[in-house]
Automatic annotation (TrEMBL):
InterPro entries attached to this UniProt entry: DNA_glyclase_Znf_dom_DNA_BS, FPG_cat, FPG_N, H2TH_FPG, Nei2_N, Ribosomal_uS13-like_H2TH, Znf_DNA_glyclase/AP_lyase
Keyword GTP-binding: no
Domain Formamidopyrimidine-DNA glycosylase catalytic: 2-103
GO molecular function, one term: class I DNA-(apurinic or apyrimidinic site) endonuclease activity
Reaction catalysis annotation: 2'-deoxyribonucleotide-(2'-deoxyribose 5'-phosphate)-2'-deoxyribonucleotide-DNA = a 3'-end 2'-deoxyribonucleotide-(2,3-dehydro-2,3-deoxyribose 5'-phosphate)-DNA + a 5'-end 5'-phospho-2'-deoxyribonucleoside-DNA + H(+)
Tagged with keyword Zinc-finger: yes
Chain's gene name: nei_1
GO terms of biological process kind: base-excision repair
Protein name stated in the entry: DNA-(apurinic or apyrimidinic site) lyase
Boundaries of every FPG-type domain copy: 222-260
Biological source species: Streptomyces glebosus
Pfam families: Fapy_DNA_glyco
Length: 269
């Protein structure tokens, strides 16, 4: 699933491609929106909100989309061949005289009044890359359930919006904490929102995410994707386990030496 920095970059690309002129083509291929035609309306902007995308149109309308695991927006020039997938996977087409944005495999696509945007994103916590960022409020939300494992608390978009599984693993490593440590037991919990903000800000304009000081492809991340390989800090083999048995495709990576859990709650298998 794309994380906040990836969605931020995508929003910027969609904004640059679609704003400045009226739509010359609109095709929303989901049953409830099949009769909607936004042709002739100008795009006022494309805003990221955590992992959500809000495309605002003249007339007070917003197209809300979320990529989840498999969705994608691709942008094409007028004569460019579309390469994002077969035609039956297309869920949205928004075209101007200069560009066409095509949404593939979008699991969430809604049209609503712009004034009603809080209905779909109002539950989110402070956005790490948004104008509403408030580290004190993010910390308050994180600590509202002090018994909750750190990794789970970081993934909960109601606490702070924009962290996915990669940043969850990397943040836990940089905090020297087990992902299963109750967040209330973290020695300096105020460092969590500050560090999260720093990481996403540093990566929001990078095509390749880096959390270490190295640009080498095999050393860009401390633990994520490095199962069985030596820890870049201490040499211990990186381990994996499910953070939450109900979470799909969210394998946790951690170093058992650099991220000790004094309560012994991390997996032992």
């Amino acid at each position: 699933m794309p994380e906040g920095d990836t969605v931020w970059r995508l929003a910027q690309r969609l904004h640059d491609a679609l704003t400045g002129g009226p739509l010359t083509r609109c095709d929303l291929r989901v049953p409830r929106l099949a009769t909607v035609d936004l042709t002739g309306r100008g795009v006022l902007g494309v805003l990221p909100r955590g992992k959500h995308l809000l495309t605002r149109f003249e007339g007070g309308l917003t197209l809300h989309s979320h990529l989840r695991m498999d969705g994608a927006w691709q942008i094409y020039a007028p004569a460019e061949r579309w390469r994002g997938g077969p035609a039956h996977q297309i869920r949205a087409i928004l075209g101007t005289a200069d560009h066409t944005a095509v949404g593939y495999r979008l699991p969430v696509l809604d049209l609503l009044r712009t004034a009603d945007e809080p209905r779909v994103v109002g539950h989110l916590g402070p956005d790490l890359l948004g104008p509403d960022w408030d580290p004190a409020e993010a910390l308050r939300r994180l600590l509202a359930t002090p018994e909750r494992p750190l990794g789970e608390a970081l993934l909960d978009q109601r606490n702070l919006a924009g962290i996915g599984n990669v940043y969850k693993c990397e943040l836990c490593f940089l905090l020297h904490a087990s992902p299963w440590l109750p967040i209330g037991a973290l020695p300096r919990p105020e460092h969590v929102p500050t560090l999260a903000k720093k990481l996403l800000e540093a990566n929001k304009r990078r095509p390749a995410r880096i959390t270490t000081a190295s640009a080498r492809p095999d050393r860009r991340l401390w633990v994520y994707g490095r199962a069985g390989r030596p820890c870049l800090r201490c040499g211990t083999g990186i381990r994996t386990a499910d953070q939450d048995p109900t979470a799909e495709e969210r394998v946790t990576y951690w170093c058992p030496t650099c991220q000790p859990d004094p309560r012994g709650s991390r997996p032992t298998g």
